[in-house]
Recover the amino acids of this structure.
């Protein structure tokens, strides 16, 4: 019998990523996609112009060194260029971190439920995903996560705010956690939604990275900056870690248009953050409306809210669909609903009123 090529055994164990679906078209009804935590605002004209200009040179490879982007990020964050690593979305950085720091069988500790790409990236690297259940209110159980660290642990992923449950980690919780975790373990603080956080005692990622040699921040242009379609994320890390991330990165992983759009977006931060403020106001309005309808939902610090639904998840998603909104169901657990246009958010409140807790 001829032998056929076969992938490593871990490959068949990689969980499937379920992307948020588009809404079902409903004649006479505007529909809203609230399934992927996207920014509902269209791009700023200046950002479109910068991307269009860059597209004019599409026959050339992008700057592999991301020089302009690093310079703009270094300036806006107040960090050295050597501490930055950009990638094809911050999800790529999770892959790169696991690829650069884990041997097969090494362990990566993370909360669960949390960002669904974590076990995918970890399993793809033949490392082991160690899932620590979130607390009943959707917060990370950092005591249990510290207790889950073993001799094989190379990375702990802390997602704040946590996708999909919503709460953010406090600085004192993170400090207590960091004091317990050995310094050779990398602590990755996934700040994909950091710009939406309004909790006063939330983690200050930049201050924490500055005071620890084992702390890495991952951030993205997909959410607050509204560039999800262009795929740009970045890590802020102590220089040797950032260098390792750049070393394992896909060559030319951030396209010219993506680099140009990200640089233009950083220049327009004030205007973009006014939109973020409006989304935060909408988020708080949705949380209040949903709670007033009798739901106990977790604190929401990102651009989404979480409904714990157990066996009623599919029914909830179907009821949403009837109202012209598409949510992101997690079978048997609950549904995450992104904050979108005010009319879509009104429908979320309407859904909370009609679908009883
Ligand atoms: N981290 C978290 C917690 C996320 O929710 C997401 C996107 N859903 C990402 C990282 C990845 O974002 P991107 O790859 O678009 O930068």
């Amino acid at each position: 019998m001829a032998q056929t090529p076969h992938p490593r055994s871990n490959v068949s164990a990689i969980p499937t990523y379920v992307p948020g679906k588009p809404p079902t078209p409903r004649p006479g009804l505007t529909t809203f996609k609230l399934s992927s935590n996207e920014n509902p605002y269209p791009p700023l004209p200046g950002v479109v112009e910068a991307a269009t200009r860059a597209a004019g040179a599409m026959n050339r490879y992008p700057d592999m060194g991301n020089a302009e982007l690093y310079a703009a990020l270094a300036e806006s964050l107040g960090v050295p260029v050597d501490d930055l690593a950009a990638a094809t979305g911050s999800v790529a950085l999770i892959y790169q971190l696991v690829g650069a720091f884990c041997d097969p069988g090494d362990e990566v500790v993370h909360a669960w439920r949390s960002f669904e790409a974590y076990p995918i990236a970890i399993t793809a690297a033949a490392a082991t995903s160690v899932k620590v259940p979130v607390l009943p209110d959707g917060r990370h159980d950092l005591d249990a996560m510290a207790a889950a660290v073993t001799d094989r642990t190379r990375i702990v992923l802390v997602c704040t705010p946590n996708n999909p449950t919503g709460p953010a980690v406090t600085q004192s919780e993170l400090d207590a956690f960091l004091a317990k975790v050995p310094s050779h373990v990398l602590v990755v603080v996934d700040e994909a939604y950091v710009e939406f956080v309004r909790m006063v005692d939330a983690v200050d990622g930049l201050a924490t990275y500055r005071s620890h040699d084992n702390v890495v921040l991952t951030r993205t242009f997909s959410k607050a900056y509204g560039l999800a379609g262009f795929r740009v994320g970045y890590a802020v890390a102590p220089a040797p870690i950032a260098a390792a991330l750049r070393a394992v990165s896909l060559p030319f992983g951030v396209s010219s248009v993506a680099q140009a759009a990200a640089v233009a977006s950083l220049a327009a931060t004030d205007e973009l953050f006014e939109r973020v403020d409006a989304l935060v106001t909408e988020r708080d309005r949705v949380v209040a409306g949903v709670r007033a309808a009798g739901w106990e939902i977790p604190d929401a610090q990102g651009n989404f809210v979480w409904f714990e639904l157990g066996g009623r998840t599919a029914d909830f998603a179907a009821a949403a669909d009837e109202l012209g909104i598409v949510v992101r169901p997690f079978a048997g657990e609950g549904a995450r609903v992104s904050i979108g246009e005010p009319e879509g958010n009104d429908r979320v409140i309407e859904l909370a009123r009609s679908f009883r807790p």
Observations:
- The chain has twelve helices and twelve strands.
- The pocket of 4'-deoxy-4'-aminopyridoxal-5'-phosphate is lined by residues 37, 89-91, 115, 159, 163, 190, 192, 220, 222, 228, 233 (CB under 6 Å).
- Residues 187 and 288 are 34 Å apart (CA to CA).
- The first helix runs from residue 45 to 55.
